[in-house]
């Protein structure tokens, strides 16, 4: 092996070693990885895993929906709300969707105010977002109670048609509702810390953006649930 080849191999090894050492240093420094902060990177990884889970749930639902030999219940009739002596199709679902989509707007404004150092307005908007989330979960609880107590829908049976309807509905909406509930708790916790001035000491409000990523994801998932479960 001549000196030129040896020098080339040594340089390549040094670059590879430096690259791996840099990668390890990023991930072990508890500050950033791949030029993204540690907290944001971990949130993206968590959301990616959640995307796989929700995709499996929705794919399973669609597979059951198209393969069942028993008639699938009509969502417009099942989720109708009795108002003024008439059944209004999907009224409650429309309100729930409006509330959750609106919460994305207040969350985005909270992130904006946080990066401008206005912790009071940021915390206020996070509390408004959490309130929207509570309203959504409350309406979902009403929807569940109506189906269980009035319509007799169960995870293992359904008097209105295909038995798989109850299992798919409670699994998908329940899992999403759990995410919304967790997000509400997280919003309240971070808003409280904002008001207390905990992030002023470090001068870093990125945690508000990280919470915002989670909340926007929850809202986006609901759009797919709304389209595939209630409109199909």
The rounded distance between the terminal residues' Cα atoms is: 69 Å
CATH 2nd-level architecture: Up-down Bundle
Average pLDDT: 87
Q: Please count the helical segments.
A: 8
Helix-strand topology string: HEEHHEEHHHHH
Which secondary-structure class do the elements indicate?
Answer: mainly alpha
Low-confidence stretches: 12-16
Major sheet: size, sense and barrel closure?
Answer: 2 strands, antiparallel
Structure description:
This protein has a single domain, classed as Up-down Bundle (Four Helix Bundle (Hemerythrin (Met), subunit A)), CATH 1.20.120.80. Helices cover 78% and strands 4% of the residues. The protein is built from 8 helices and 4 strands. The strands form 2 sheets. A two-stranded antiparallel ribbon has the order 1-2. Strands 3-4 form a two-stranded antiparallel ribbon. Strand 1 and strand 2 form a beta hairpin. The longest helix has 33 residues. About 2% of the residues have low confidence. One of its GO terms (cellular component) is plasma membrane.
